[in-house]
Design goal:
The protein is of the alpha/beta class and about 375 residues long. It has 17 helices and twelve strands. The longest helix is centred in the middle third of the chain and has 20 residues, at about 200-220. Mean pLDDT is about 85; it is low at about 60-65 and about 180-190.
Length: about 375
């Protein structure tokens, strides 16, 4: 019997959450060959990354403009690598601006057109939140990608109406988190406060001074028994390590791989908006969500975004479960006020009850998201 050809996948992740998901997808395809761009999680399972993933870990209009030269270079380099490697599938995970520009470059080239004629396919993981802003992006995605993996059923029609094959696979981080038993430590001296300033350098630089003030104000206001933990990622670990040297309160730094253990033991978390708030929601941890960007980006965002919240659990349940402090409102005093509310037993109980009610919304009943994506890529 003739052996089946080994599939070659060119896989691209642009930030930590995508790197984690990319590694999970790779593990579901043990017979595939992988090349592309990723971080420590994907390289640990065999990926040889073309360049550091941190080159792509920027967001916001001003931030992207500041890194335009580097991004333009990496787009060309990645497109050339795809043409050279001749993969069967290009699988991009989030990082939409980079992913779209790379694929457009490949599609426009003569060599790329030849590969497409021979069967090259372009798949993308993480549907843009067109239900929140810029719905026209759905049509653009249909012109660029051959298949899209969305997280939720309600997202699918936005893209299929434009002819894009779209599959709802559930939220990838639900794998193992929904069932994970929490071990919340309630005694005063052991209460853990987890601080997550983000994975992008721009957001970390904005939030670390604020988090420093919050931690020092909490201690000054009588919360002397609390322990502070900050999970770090490879893109910003050195900066965070240097920044806490000036703190009066010394938080414990842990690696990204240890974060779920810290989350599950947290009394309260204070985190940047993003994937981490969904992770904490699945673990039923009361959380304050903050989001502080460049003032210009914030001003533009307020005029474009159509939803009331930035936290996914709030959007899914259509109500405020996690308190949010956004834009120019982000300061230590407001965060402290929200934090103190989360120490009230009745408030905590209500939040945890709401978080439990969201459990069924995070995933599909027919398999783990990473396995579903892998099956479609191979198929």
């Amino acid at each position: 019997m003739q052996n089946k050809k080994k599939i070659k996948v060119f896989i691209i992740a642009g930030e930590v959450s995508g790197d984690v998901l990319g590694a999970r997808i790779m593990r579901e395809m043990p017979d595939a060959e992988f090349v592309g761009v990723g971080g420590e999680n994907m390289t640990s399972v065999g990926l040889r990354s073309l360049f550091p993933m941190s080159d792509l870990a920027v967001m916001g209009i001003v931030e992207v403009l500041a890194h335009a030269k580097t991004l333009k270079k990496r787009i060309k380099e990645t497109a050339n690598a795809i043409i050279s490697e001749k993969p069967d599938v290009v699988l991009t995970i989030d990082a939409p601006g980079f992913a779209k520009n790379v694929i457009k470059t490949v599609r426009k080239s003569e060599q790329g057109k030849e590969l497409i004629n021979k069967g090259l396919r372009f798949h993308h993981v993480v549907a843009p939140q067109v239900w929140a802003w810029r719905e026209g992006r759905a049509k653009t995605y249909a012109q660029i990608f051959d298949k899209l993996y969305a997280f939720f059923d309600f997202e699918v029609p936005y893209f299929t109406r434009h002819g894009l094959d779209t599959v709802a696979v559930g939220h990838p981080i639900s794998d193992g988190l929904i069932e994970r038993k929490t071990k919340r430590i309630q005694s005063g001296k052991d209460k853990i406060i987890t601080l997550v300033p983000g994975s992008r350098m721009s957001e970390v630089k904005r939030l670390m001074p604020v988090f420093q003030s919050v931690a020092e104000m909490l201690i000054a206001n009588g919360y002397s028994g609390y322990k502070f933990v900050i999970p770090t990622v490879e893109t910003t670990a050195e900066y965070v390590k240097n920044h806490i040297k000036q703190w009066k309160v010394k938080p414990t730094l842990i690696s990204s791989s240890e974060r779920y253990e810290a989350y599950s033991k947290s009394y309260i978390a204070i985190v940047v908006s993003g994937t981490v708030s969904a992770e904490l929601a699945m673990l039923h941890i009361p959380t304050v969500v903050v989001y502080k960007m460049n003032p210009i980006t914030t001003w533009i965002g307020k005029r474009l975004i159509k939803v009331k919240w930035v936290s996914l659990v709030n959007i899914l349940l259509n109500k405020t479960v996690y308190p949010e402090i956004l834009g120019s409102d982000v300061n230590a005093e407001r965060i402290l006020d929200a934090f103190q509310q989360l120490t009230i037993p009745s408030v905590r109980e209500k939040i945890i009850k709401d978080l439990k009610s969201a459990d069924a919304l995070w995933r599909k009943p027919d398999g783990a998201p990473s396995a579903l994506i892998a099956a479609h890529v191979v198929g």
